[in-house]
Amino acid sequence: MRRDRLTPARLGPRDVLHVGSAGLRTRPIRVVLSALGIALGIATMIAVVGISASSKAQLLQQLDRLGTNMLTITPGQDLLSGKTAKLPKEAPGMIGRIPGVEHVGATGDLQPTVRRSEKIPESDTSGITVKAADEDLLKVLRGTVDAGTWLNAANGRYPAVVLGHIAAERLGITTPGQQVLIGSRYFTVIGVLDPLPLAPEIERSALVGWQAASALLGFDGHPTQIYERSTDASVDTVRGLIPRTADPQAPNNVRVTDPSSALQAKAATEGAFTNLLLGLGGVALLVGGVGVANTMIISVLERRHEIGLRRSLGATRGQVRIQFVTESLLLSGLGGLAGVVLGAAATYVFAASGGMPWVVPLWAVGGGFAATLLIGSVAGLYPAVRAARLSPTLALHAG
User: Fold this and answer.
1) How far does Cα 6 stand from its chain's mean position?
2) Which label site among 110, 211, 305, 368 has the fewest CB atoms less than 10 Å from its CB?
3) Closest listed residue to residue 384, CA positions, set 287, 335, 318, 291
4) Is residue 191 a contact partner of residue 137, using CB atoms and an 8 Å limit?
5) pLDDT-derived band of residue 162, with 50, 70 and 90 as boundaries?
6) How far apart are CA 79 and CA 295, in angstroms?
7) What are phi and psi of 161, to 5 degrees?
8) Are 101 and 258 in contact (CB under 8 A)?
9) Are 116 and 180 in contact (CB under 8 A)?
C-alpha cells in the first residue's frame, strides 16, 4: 500500500514576518536597547555625511553669489633691486580697457595706523591696516554695506572712513558717526561693511577715499592691489593680458591671482576629515551589530522550548533559520530607521544654527540603511543556524 509523503507547509511573507517579529513584540525593552547601538552608528554616519554636504553646499552657494571671475593684481618683487615693485598709477585704468573686463577697483596701502583715540599707543594696531580705496572697489568685490554708506566722489575727498567688519569689531564700532584716529587726524566713520569672503584683507582694513588719502595721509597714488572682474568666458584671456597691460615696461613684476580658488579648494576638500569620522561611525555600527548578535543568541537560548515545539509540530530547520534571520533583520532595520531620523535631525540642527542649507544625500541614507540590513543578516546568521540545529526532543526537555 502506497503512503503519501508528508510535506511541511510553506511560510508566506506574512507568516515569516509574523513569526520573525514575535520575539520583538514580547521583549520590547531588550529590542530598544539592542537597536540603540545600531541607531547611534547610523546616526553618526548620516550626520557626518550630512554636515559635510551642508557645509559644501554653503560654500558653493557663496561661489555662485560671489562669482569665480574676479582676479587680483599685486606688485611682485623687482629682480634688480630685490624690493617690492610698484604698480603704475595708471594701471587700474589700463586694465579696465582690456576687452571683457567689466569692473576694476583698487586699494593702496598707507603707513598711518588707526586707533580709537590718542590714548592708545600707536604701535597697538590690532591687526588693522589703513588703505586708500577707489569708488568702484565695492562693486568689484560684490560687497554690501552693513550700516552707513560707501565712499563716493563727494565724501571721498574728506576725512571719512569705511571699516571692514572685522576692523569695526576690533575698534568696538557698530554704527557710523563715531570717530577714529588715523595717524594724527580724526576721521569720521561713515560705513561698516558686511563680510567679504573673497577679500579678507579688506575685512581687516580702514578704507579712506583716494583723494583724501593723497591730500591728508601722504598717499603717493600707486595702487598696491587691484581687483578686476571680467566676463566668465574671458577670464583666462584677461589673465594673460593683465601683466603686459598693467606694467608694459616690467610685466614680470605683476602678479595675478584668483581669490575664489581658496573657496573652491575648501569646497573640494570639505570631506577631508569625513572618512575619519565615518570610520568612527562604522565602529559604532559594528558594536551595534555585535549587540544584535548577542541579543539573538540569548533569544535562542531562552526560546529553546518554543523552537522544540515548532520543530515537533512540523517546522523545518530552514523555517526556523528564516524566523531568526528575519527577527535579526527587523531588529537592525528598526535601529537603522531610528538612526537615519536621528542623523537627519542632527544635520538639520547644525545647518539651521549655522545658516546653511540642509543637505542629507540620498546615497548616505540608502547606504546606511543597507549597511544595517547587512549587519543584521550577518549578526542573525549564527544564532539562526544554532536554533535550527537544536534537537526537538532535547529542546522540549530543556524547556
Assistant:
1) 64
2) 305
3) 318
4) no
5) very high
6) 75
7) -140, 145
8) no
9) yes
Cell of 75: 606688485
**Helix/strand/coil percentages in the chain, nearest 5:** 55, 15, 30
pLDDT class for 26, splitting at 50, 70, 90? confident
DSSP one-letter string for 126-173: TT-EEEEE-TTHHHHHT--EEEE----TTGGGSSEEEE-HHHHHHHT-
Place of cell 503512503: 3
Report which secondary-structure segment, H or E, holds 71. strand 70-75
Rounded Cα distance between 227 and 7, Å, is 85
Q: What gap in Å lies between CA 279 and CA 284, rounded to an integer?
A: 9
Mean pLDDT for the stretch of residues 207-232? 93
Please give the full DSSP string across 341-368, using - where no structure is assigned.
Answer: HHHHHHHHHHHHHHT------HHHHHHH
* Whole-structure pTM value: 0.60
pLDDT digits (tens, 9 = 90+) for 249-267: 888 889 998 876 655 655 5
Is the separation of the CB atoms in 323 and 20 below 8 Å? yes
Q: Burial code of 280-302, b = ≥16 C-beta within 10 A, e = fewer?
A: ebeebbbebbebbbebbbebbee
- pLDDT for the residue 81: 66
Buried b (16+ CB within 10 A) or exposed e, 193-206: beebbbbeebbbbb
Model confidence at 167: pLDDT above 90: yes
Task: Work out the mean pLDDT of the chain and round it to a whole number.
Answer: 82
| Distance in angstroms (rounded) separating the CA atoms of residues 38 and 46 | 12
Concatenating the DSSP letter of every residue in 372-390 gives: HHHHHHHHHHHHHHHHHTS
95-118 pLDDT tens trace: 999 999 999 999 999 999 999 888
Question: Dihedral of the CA atoms 171, 154, 223, 139 (nearest 10)?
Answer: 80
- Grid coordinates representing 184 are 594724527
State the CB neighbour count (10 A cutoff) for residue 28: 9
Three-state DSSP state, 256: strand
Q: What is the Cβ-side half-sphere exposure of residue 184, based on CA atoms within 13 angstroms?
A: 2
